[in-house]
Structures are given as C-alpha cells and as structure tokens.
Amino acid sequence: MGGAAVIVDDLAGVELRETSQPVYDRPFELGLLYEDPRSGAEHYLVRYPRGLVAQWHRHTAAHTIVVLEGALEVNGQRIGPGSYCHFPAAEPMHHAPAPGESCLFVILFDGPFDVEPVAP
After folding, report:
1. Going by C-beta distance under 8 Å and a sequence separation of 6 or more, which residues neighbour residue 67?
2. Which of 9, 29, 59, 113 has a CB 3.0–4.6 Å from the CB of 47, allowing a cystine?
C-alpha cells in the first residue's frame, strides 16, 4: 500500500509566499503543494505577476505546467487556462506571463528544483 494521499480541494486557499529566482527580474509567488522525500519531486502553485521578465533557463528534473488562470508564454507560444506543457530534463526553455497578463499555474517537478540560466 502507498502513503497517504495529498488532497488540496481548494487551490485558492493555498498560502503563497514571495520568492526570487536568478532567471526572473523580480519576485513572484509560490506555494508548496507536495514534496516527495524519496524522489525529491516538488509540486508548487505559482503566480507570475503581470510584466515579469524571465530568461531562458533549464532544470535538472523534467517538469510539467498546467495553467489555471491568465496566460503564459512558453517558448514563444501563448497558452491559457486549461493548457498543459511538459519539459524534458535539461531542455532549455522560456516561460513567463504573456504580455499584459498575470498567470496562475501548477508546476510539477519530477525531482528536486534547481534552475540554471542558458542562452536562447
């Protein structure tokens, strides 16, 4: 049998905290949803503010994004609520709020979070 299920029945109730990362021009908000002590997988609720600028970057772990509100620009493509995107491990990528938009999304890392800026 597996461990206890993690159920968040109201994402709007998740406490978001301000964080800064080296590939963004200003802070944004995130809330931890789940962290797996065995694999290091990390799941977050993330809110990007309107106008946030991001650099191209990569992560060691593969990860998946599901957009809940607003719009996200991913590798030059605009995606909105209900959209899904997956990035293989170590693949250069760019994601930021679409011009004029803020964005709320869930991001699921298959392993521990890290970030490395890369040239586009």
Report:
1. 79, 80, 81, 82, 83, 84, 103, 104, 105
2. 29
DSSP string across 25-93: SS-EEEEEEEE-TTT--EEEEEEEPTT--B--EE-SS-EEEEEEEE-EEETTEEE-TT-EEEE-TT--B
Give residue-wise pLDDT tens across range 90-115: 999 999 999 999 999 999 999 999 99
Location of structure tokens 């699921």: 108
Judge contact between 13 and 45, C-beta under 8 A. no
Token couple for 11: 């994402």
